[in-house]
Design brief:
Largest sheet: none
Structural class: mainly alpha
Number of helices: 11
CATH topology: Rhopdopsin 7-helix transmembrane proteins
Number of domains: 1
CATH class: Mainly Alpha
Mean pLDDT: 87
Low-confidence stretches: 1-14
Shape: globular
Order of helices and strands: HHHHHHHHHHH
Length: about 260
């Protein structure tokens, strides 16, 4: 009995240090971001490479390349609503709802790119980011996180966009956007998975990183493709592919039969 108690104590300590490390990374990354100088919105950001209009739609490809978000978001919500075996459905539904709304917000922004319309692009993005973030934390770290963290996380996401809009400071929004990229791989290393096919989460993150790279080289991609497709349009498609990877993961995964999973 004493040996069992010692093992339980060691196990509790093992879980404890992992929680502390994860919390330190989240808080430390926020403190690091806020310690930097205010990051204003670059006015040239709205000057996209592909301005072609077709069928009366300005910036046609940047607008229409958002359609996959709508299709994947609706498919994800339908799957979550129809499958009662999906754990933490509220968080996953939030993620896919954000993905679907991104198609509208981003399409509206690219129709007329300004700082004012960009607000409606970024707000639904924070819904998706925070939904994914909370779902992963709940499934890997502690199931209770999915119950009480979702609403505060969403409020933080909304505030980050409004803070940028009011004060022209992107630091908090940048943290909201990149904290899932930072913590999801860490969580997957520190904690045992409850489900199979978790590698698809890494595929999704890789797609998003490639999307950001494509966005950064908007004009170069446009020139490389002989003015057929811009880097920003590719960004939308790569991001949508990442969201699709998450949907495939939810549809194909199985519960891992491991009683030692913390």
């Amino acid at each position: 009995m004493q040996n069992m108690n010692q093992q339980a104590t060691l196990h509790s300590r093992e879980i404890g240090w992992r929680h502390v490390l994860l919390l330190s990374i989240v808080i430390g990354s926020l403190a690091l971001m806020l310690s930097m100088q205010p990051l204003g919105q670059n006015r040239d950001y709205h000057n996209f490479a592909d301005r072609r209009a077709f069928f009366g739609i300005p910036n046609f490809f940047d607008v229409m390349s958002n359609i996959p978000f709508l299709l994947i978001g609706m498919a994800g919500m339908s799957f979550c609503f129809g499958n009662h075996l999906v754990s933490f459905r509220s968080a996953w539904l939030t993620f896919f709802a954000g993905v679907a709304i991104v198609s509208v917000g981003s399409g509206y922004y690219h129709w007329n790119p300004t700082n004012e319309t960009l607000v409606w692009d970024r707000l639904p993005m924070t819904i998706g980011f925070m939904g994914l973030f909370v779902a992963v934390l709940a499934e890997y770290v502690n199931v209770r996180l999915g119950k009480f963290l979702l609403v505060p996380a969403l409020l933080m996401g909304f505030f980050s966009v409004l803070y940028w809009h009011w004060f022209d400071d992107l630091r908090f929004y940048a943290w909201i956007q990149f904290v899932p990229l930072l913590t999801v791989p860490v969580v997957m290393v520190l904690f045992r998975p409850r489900y199979s096919h978790q590698w698809l989460l890494l595929v999704a993150l890789a797609c998003y990183m490639l999307a950001k790279l494509s966005e950064a080289y908007d004009r170069e991609v446009f020139m490389f493709t002989q003015s057929l497709f811009s880097g920003h349009s590719f960004k939308h498609l790569l991001s949508a592919l990442g969201c699709f990877s998450v949907l495939v993961m939810l549809k194909t995964r199985r519960l891992v039969d491991d009683d030692s999973t913390p």
